[in-house]
From TrEMBL:
GO biological process, one term: biotin biosynthetic process
Assembly and binders: Homodimer.
Entry cofactors: [2Fe-2S] cluster; [4Fe-4S] cluster
Protein name, per record: Biotin synthase
Pathway membership, UniProt: Cofactor biosynthesis; biotin biosynthesis; biotin from 7,8-diaminononanoate: step 2/2
Gene responsible for this protein: bioB
Pfam families: BATS, Radical_SAM
Superkingdom assignment: Bacteria
Assigned EC number: 2.8.1.6
C-alpha cells in the first residue's frame, strides 16, 4: 500500500514559473496510486496542451565517440571500451541530407549532437553553417554540444539555433556516482548562458541508473525550479551499452518510468515532456500510458545518437493507432 493519501494536493498552486517544488512534494507525487497520478497528470496536460498533438525531434550525431568526459551511461566516452567507433565531424552536406530526410519523414525539429566536453571555438564555427542550412529547410534547430563558454551561445543563436539541449541527467545527490569529470554547477552555468543568449532550453535527464525514487524526485525538482522552466524536458530511460559502467544497471520497472513522466508533467505543466531514449525497449502500451501521463514529444528516427530507436514506420503506425498528430 502507498503511504501517501489519495487526497494529496499541492497547496495553492503558484505560477508554474515560480514553482519552488520541494523534493518531498515531488516524491509524494511519485508515490501516489498510479492511476490517480496518471489521471492528475492527464488533467494538467489538457489545461496547457492539445493532447492529440505530438512534437517530433530527429537526432543526428555530427561527431561521434572519443569524448574526454567520463559519463557512466555514455557509450561515446573514451574512458569506456564500447562498440561505438569514433567518427570525425560530418560535413555540412551530410548533415543537410539527414535533415532533409528527417523533414520528409515528418519531423519538426532536428537535433545535432556532438561527443565533446564542449565545443572549441573552431569546432563551433564549423557547426554554424549546419545550423543555418538546417534552419533554412524550415525545421526547428537544436544542438547538444556540451558545456558552453562565454559568447558561444550567442554565436549559435545568431546562426539560427532555436534550442540548446543540455541535461542535468540526475539528482545532485546522485551525480558524483555517475560523472566525475564535470560538476553539476558547470551544467547549471551552461544552462544560464543558453537562457541569457535567448535560446530555448531543452533540459532533462536519465532514469534507470540504479537511482532511488527520491533521486528521481530530486532531478525533477532541479528541472522544475529552473526559472523559467525548460521549454523541453527529455526523460531518457537508460540505454544499457556493453562496456559502460552502467551496463548492468537494474532495469527500472515500467510503472516507475510512467510515474516519472507524470510527475514531470505536473511539475512542469507548460513544458514539452519528451519520452526519449529507451523507447525501443518499451512496448506500445507503455508508451501510450506515457502519452496519457503527459508526454507530448519523442525522438523520431531509426537512431538516437549511437543506439537504436523504433523505426520510422513503427512510430508512424503507433501514432496512427493512438490518433496522435505530429506538430
Ligand atoms: N556531449 C554532450 C553532453 O554530454 O552534454 C552532448 C551529447 S550527450 C550524448 C547528450 C545526452 O545524451 C546526455 O546528457 C544524456 O542525457 C544522454 N545519453 C547519453 N548516453 C545515454 C544512454 N546510454 N542512455 C540514455 N541517455 C543517454
Ligand atoms: C537527450 O536527452 N537524449 C538524446 C539527446 N538528448 C541528445 C541522446 C540519447 C542518447 C542515447 C544513447 C546513444 O544513442 O548514444
Ligand atoms: Fe561525452 Fe556527452 Fe557522452 Fe558525457 S554524455 S561522455 S559529455 S558525449
Amino acid at each position: 500500500m502507498h503511504s501517501v493519501p489519495m487526497e494529496f494536493k499541492r497547496p495553492a498552486a503558484p505560477h508554474p514559473q515560480q514553482a519552488n517544488w520541494s523534493v518531498d512534494e515531488v516524491e509524494a507525487l511519485l508515490g501516489l496510486p498510479l492511476m490517480e497520478l496518471v489521471f492528475r497528470a492527464a488533467e494538467i496536460h489538457r489545461q496547457f496542451f492539445d493532447p492529440t498533438k505530438i512534437q517530433l525531434s530527429t537526432l543526428v550525431s555530427i561527431k561521434t565517440g572519443g569524448c574526454p568526459e567520463d559519463c557512466g551511461y555514455c557509450p561515446q566516452s573514451a574512458h569506456h571500451d564500447t562498440p561505438v567507433e569514433d567518427q570525425p565531424m560530418m560535413t555540412v552536406a551530410e548533415v543537410v541530407a539527414a535533415a532533409r530526410q528527417a523533414k520528409a519523414n515528418g519531423a519538426g525539429r532536428f537535433c545535432m549532437g556532438a561527443a565533446w566536453r564542449g565545443p572549441k571555438d573552431a569546432d563551433l564555427g564549423q557547426t554554424l553553417d549546419m545550423v543555418r542550412e538546417v534552419k533554412a529547410l524550415g525545421l526547428e534547430t537544436c544542438a547538444t554540444f556540451g558545456l558552453l563558454r562565454d559568447g558561444q551561445a550567442e554565436r549559435l543563436k545568431d546562426a539560427g539555433l532555436d534550442y540548446y539541449n543540455h541535461n542535468l541527467d540526475t539528482a545532485p545527490d546522485k551525480y558524483a556516482d555517475i560523472i566525475q569529470s564535470r560538476e553539476y554547477e558547470d551544467r547549471l552555468d551552461t544552462l544560464g548562458k543558453v537562457r541569457k543568449a535567448g535560446l530555448s532550453v531543452c533540459c532533462g535527464g536519465i532514469v534507470g541508473m540504479n537511482e532511488t525514487r527520491r533521486d528521481r524526485a530530486g532531478l525533477i525538482v532541479q528541472l522544475a525550479n529552473l526559472d523559467p522552466q525548460p521549454e523541453s524536458v527529455p526523460v531518457n530511460n537508460l540505454v544499457k551499452v556493453v562496456g559502460t559502467p552502467l551496463e548492468g544497471a537494474e532495469k527500472l520497472d515500467w510503472t516507475e518510468f510512467v510515474r516519472t513522466i507524470a510527475a514531470a508533467r505536473i511539475a512542469m505543466p507548460r513544458s514539452y515532456v519528451r519520452l526519449s531514449a529507451g523507447r525501443r525497449e518499451m512496448d506500445e502500451a507503455t508508451q501510450a500510458l506515457c502519452f496519457l501521463a503527459g508526454a507530448n514529444s519523442i525522438f523520431y528516427g531509426d537512431k538516437l545518437l549511437t543506439t537504436g530507436n523504433p523505426d520510422v514506420l513503427a512510430d508512424q503506425s503507433l501514432m496512427a493507432k493512438l490518433d496522435l498528430q505530429p506538430l
